[in-house]
Structure formats: structure tokens, C-alpha cells
Amino acid sequence: MAAAVLHFTSGLIKVFWLLLPAAVVVRLIGSRRFKGLMGELRVSWAVRRHLDRRVYHTFCNLILPTADGTTQVDHVIVSRYGIFVIETKNMQGVISGSRQERSWTQQIGTHVRSFQNPLHQNYKHTKVVQELLGVSKAHVFSLIVFVGRSEFGSSMPENVTQGSGVVELIQARKKRLFNSTQTAALISTINAAKLKNSFRNRKRHIEYVQSLVAVKQIRPQSCPLCGSPMVLREAKRGKNMGSAFWGCSTFPVCEGTINIA
Prior knowledge:
The chain is of the alpha/beta class. It has helices at 2-29, 32-50, 118-133, 165-171, 180-193, 199-216; strands at 57-65, 70-79, 82-90, 93-96, 103-108, 111-116, 140-147, 150-152, 160-162, 230-234, 244-248, 257-259. Strand 11 and strand 12 (257-259) form a beta hairpin.
């Protein structure tokens, strides 16, 4: 009897160790990080296949320094026709939203959830790239690309597209903005500024993002000047561009602020 139990237990252990790698793979594939990576790869494949590499220079998964930390950009494409900053979303379901809304919605069946307006999310990326390169904001174009089994439930802004549609948006820009010398200088500047895409730098960036999330959950009681509620804002210009701070909700009536340590 003991031998039978031992044999049965041994069999269960073997099955467990056989199934463990499969379970890990299934969990990995279902993770948000993996889906995001797959989305970035699909967009990277599309632009590299359909855009002339002699004209369009592509940077993928860029980690760039900011005044108070780092920012991660899915794709930056430098060309004579402008600089394209691309945010990729690998999502399914029906996607709805407008340029002005703070949050967009994703509907799968009867389940509806909100997520940050990706145009607002990509705003910081475009500002960081613009400031880094010292170019006019009119020469930097923000593009949002949805990949995966998704569809749009409303009329989307003109710079929001799906899949390989990003190639058409890029190729639609025909006006030459930079000459060959300027384009080479822009590429050189990004190469000099970007952080190595190493495990250590990715970990530091994730920790920085997590710290911002934690800050959002510690809201000051009231404005020190007028007593109104405070909201989390982001510096849009100057040496602190990209840095978060607490600002009065009644701005510009009241300009009360509280720095984030």
C-alpha cells in the first residue's frame, strides 16, 4: 500500500513539474507587459517593412531622461518630414473616446472599463522629445496606434489609428521640414541622450512610475491659498517640464501649488 501511495505521489510530482512551465508561459502571455511588448513589435515590424529606412530612422522602446526621472516611449521615428512619437495600445473590444476626454472606454461584451486618454499620455513623450531635440512643436507629431482585436466605437481623432494604418499617417506628411544634415543631427542627439535599454534602467523607470502612482493617492487636503481641492498637474515648460506637482483646482483663478518632494 505504501509503495502504491509513493508511486502515485511521485507521478503527481512529475505531472506538476511538467505543467509548471506551461502555466508560467500562459501567465506571461496573459500579462499586460507581454501584450504591450507584442503590440510594440507589431508596429515596429509594420514601419520597418513599409517605410524606407534611408528616409525614416526608427527608435523603439526608448528610455529618455527627464527633469525628475525618466519616460519610456514606444517608438520615435525621425525623418525629413518630421518627428513621429508613437504610443502603442494592444487592446481588444470596442474603444471609444475623444481628444478632450481625460479617460477613454474599452467595452468587451457588457464589461466596460476606463483607461487614460492615450493622447494625454503621449503628450509628455512628445514634449520630452521636442525639448531634447530643440525643435518646434509643429515638427513633432503624436500618433496613437491600437493593435489587437479592437474596433473604434466612435469617430476618433485624425492621429489615432489601427495597425498598419500608422504607416499611412506617417506617409501623409509630405512637406520637408529638415535637410539631411539636420536629420542626422537629430538622430545623433537621440543616440547620445537615450539610456541603455537594460534590465536595471527598465527597473528604475518602473519604480519611478510606481512612485508617481503612489503620489496620486496622497492628495493634499486643500489649496494653501484659497482652500479649494488640489489636483495633480504636470509642468509643461521650463526646467521642470514633465515634473508632477499639486495645483489648485480653480486655476487660473488661483495659482496655489504644492511641490512634490
